[in-house]
Amino acid sequence: MAVVRATPANPTPGMVAAANEAGDQRSMPPELGPDSLAVLSGPTFLYANSLGDVPPGSIGGLVHLDTRLLSCWTLTVNGSELLALRAETIDHYSAQYVLTNPDLPGLPPNSLGVERLRYVGEGFHERVELRSFRPEPVRVELRLAVGVDFADLFEVKSVVRDRSAEITRDHAADGSELCFSYRNGDFRVQTRVCCQAPADRVEGDELIWDLELRPREQWQVDLHVPLPSGVGVVEPVRGDIADVIHGRADDPLRRWTEDRAVLRGDNQALERTVRRSRDDLAALRLDLEVKGQRIMLPGAGLPWFLAVFGRDTLITAYQTLVAGPTLAKGALLALARLQGDRCDDFTDEEPGKILHEVRSGELTRNGTKPYGPYYGSADATQLWLILLSEYWRWTGDDETVRRLRDNALAALRWIDEYGDRDGDGYVEYGTRSPEGLGNQCWRDSPDGVCFADGRIPVLPLATSDIQGYTYDAKIRLAELFDGPLANRALARRLRDEAGTLHERFNRDFWIEERGGYYAVALDGDKNVVDAKTSSMGHLLWSGIVPRERADAVVRQLMSPDMFSGWGIRTLSREESLYNAVGYHLGTVWPHDNSIAALGLARYGYRAEANRISLALFEAAEQFGHRLPEALTGFARERMVFAVPYPTACSPQAWAAGTPLALVRAMLGLNPIDGRLALDPDIPEELGRITADRVRAFGQEWGVEAVCTSGHVRLQPS
């Protein structure tokens, strides 16, 4: 009998998963429609369709800390759903829906004006307002159907376990409250729907108001779903619903954003995109408790990834250092506190390893899923070291670097002792958990790493991007040991190791055929995995590419087979598995392109970096100045608009960080020896760019640049 070998698509053959098969992940937005809207505040969000409804059985609902508190929330008038006139989010946490009635018995169309105002903060708040435009009194039955399934977010993405027999109800007889409770061992959760104007009747889980409206009479009801006690939202907005919607309530977000660098420019699209990025990063902030540690970091993305991710958080912090060091310092300290300290097969934890993902739902808390936290990432540890270095370069904060000395040494030991699984000098990955990830680089879908002919390689894999990060981390760590960490012998050793890795990598990963390019990986048999991918942009960013090969790499990245017109595709069109709508098989990821742009600028390919930047800023205009997680890889020459990936998170942290990284690449802004160095190359289409309150070395700086000239000045504190 042939031995089944582990691959990213089947990483633990013969092992039985701890949970039932998840099945195909369901897509968004088809169930809610393309006009679906979300309101968001930290780990809390509500997804609904254009009417403001959450139909039963859909992926919508109110979710807090990975648990769905509402799975149905539908409003009807006289037994019929309403008609949408317009719906818009106001701020990331608030939305307004304007509706009317269809043609109903005794109620002609457009007889009622219906508004739904909602926001999330310390719970979910909604105000429903009805206004009659009839010249005579009308009788209206307003019905709100409520459903609760307490599903774990992992189930919402796939198959929801039926908990109905275990959900208890304690609805108020006077119509003022619906109450649902669920308990499974130590996991307890409750949903309460509180009514400011009690319902006239309660039928099952439905609230019903029997109204008689006089001509032009207005009626309203306020509904409130409190959040479970504990940490979660960072400084939520509070106040009357109308005051929140119209901006009259105190908004902590505004205070948070006022402390960030301010960018202005001649190009309004650029300025608005950067402003939207700032607001989205604020919206994604989480205040969580993990292993007794309180951490405040941005969640990775709405709706599926409102949780702390090591890789996503670290890259986002790197992208946004130009706007201030607060996020980077928080990421370094929080992830250091949660650094691995033992070997655990179920969670892929190892000493010194930086976590991949943290979850809070029932499946994690009862041990079915390994996410409390999960360590299945082979690149987060190197990225933590890279961020530590970049934070120090921007701040000169020797004290924080020294405080994290032991964590840095532990991360280095992980790279050399656990990351390099077979002692060949490369960091490889392969999960030991039945619930573990098959691919543990950023291309983490089961087919995200493939051969040019479509075959899936055997594990363990040493991907090229991870080797580039490892090289960069050792070079940077040597700089820290020459400086605040004061160990010159170790610094010399690290530079020697980096030099050896550079030489071996460029021997083993380089492919001369097809114009010359870098392989995406070496597989478990040390075969070259020969697909052309966007990982080559990460290699430029890390500096592991020799100057004499840079031209070939850039030609590959900017060729029509890889550059779609909106950005660099994750996989070349030449390859067998190319799919313009494949998650890592030909889509265009903004964060991936921001890393490539920084790499291109590093090697002096400013025109190519600008081409990427302009394309992404133009794409952002088409999505309300917000870049989605990923775009499809359709060629721009065949499309008059950019097309998002069907289940793209939006907002998403490293997509939100992308505009700041692109601006940094255009400005050529880098901290050098206690000062900010500026080397601008700004496309004519963008004109002048100015930035105030840029923080570096404990001071604030002002930057102004146009085309290839500019200046940096210290600003008064």
From TrEMBL:
Family annotation (SUPFAM superfamilies): Six-hairpin glycosidases (SSF48208)
Residue ranges occupied by any Putative glycogen debranching enzyme N-terminal domain in the UniProt entry: 41-223
A Pfam family matched in the record: MGH1-like_GH
InterPro entries referenced in this protein's UniProt entry, alphabetically: 6-hairpin_glycosidase_sf (IPR008928), 6hp_glycosidase-like_sf (IPR012341), GDE_N_bis (IPR032856), MGH1-like_GH (IPR054491)
Signal peptide: none
Keywords: Coiled coil
Residue ranges the record marks as coiled coil: 253-287
Positions of the Mannosylglycerate hydrolase MGH1-like glycoside hydrolase domain: 387-622
Name of this chain's protein: Glycogen debranching enzyme (Alpha-1,6-glucosidase)
Organism: Micromonospora noduli
